[in-house]
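Throughout this chapter, every protein is written as a compact record of paired, labelled lines. The reader may check this reading against the record printed directly beneath this paragraph:
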Amino acid sequence: MTARASAGRRHWHPPIPEDRRRAVVGGAAGVAALGVAAKFLLTVVINAPAGPPVGGGDAAAVGATAVAGVAAVVVALTETDPVSGVGLLFVGVFGLLSLGPGAVVAPAAVAVAAGTTAVAVAHRHRFANARGIALGTLLAALTVCLASGVGGWVALRPLGSTLALVGVAVTPAFAATTTRSLLGGGAAFAAVVALGLSLPFVVGAVTLVGGGVVGSSLPVAAIAVGGAVTAGSAALRRREWSLLAGVVLVAFAGVPAALPRAVPFALGAATFAVREGRR
């Protein structure tokens, strides 16, 4: 990538042609989203008491993290803003490095959080509204959760879990919601509440094992599911593939207290920022 000065700002010339950038972002984030969703489902199945003897949970986590890291690098190659591009490279490169020796974990956590924040700052002119609050919630969740997990401040884990769920709940702010999508989200909320009241141990196990949720309440989890369904259905109806991928990434990544969850969560938040910056 090369850079030039224009109107007081520096711009990169990304190697991916302009007419293909939207499709590349949607495709890269979409592949990462599929990997994260598959890892979530496999984790739940492996840990189910009456489930079949299925292995590969660790391999799935490594694979999903690697795919999300590569996807972040690919999205970086579509960015014309150097700050956003470098931020995405931080998320991708350090996300991949986190799969190596344990000594890299703490610097990688800082780099992932800082890189995601850089992407948001680069596109801040597009977030002077409810979308800014939604993105800020996701960034706060990422930072607090990494501090509670990688940073060792375990007392912050319940707060981080709640922030992550609230961040997922407010993803409809990025979507053009319709009555049908709102009804779908409401139905999903009611279903989770009903299931949680009738089978509390099952719902608790799924949120803990699949999502890494600690110390949050059933209504907050239900609101998160309702928000994800609302935003996802609205994105699917309008064929907003990058938006759909972002929703799946932050919803199925779970509480980003460890890097295997934080890297896809960060990619989802960054995807929202990149999408808004190009609207």
Q: What stands out?
A: The first strand starts at residue 2 and ends at 6. The CA atoms of residues 108 and 189 lie 35 Å apart. The chain is about 70% helix and 5% strand.
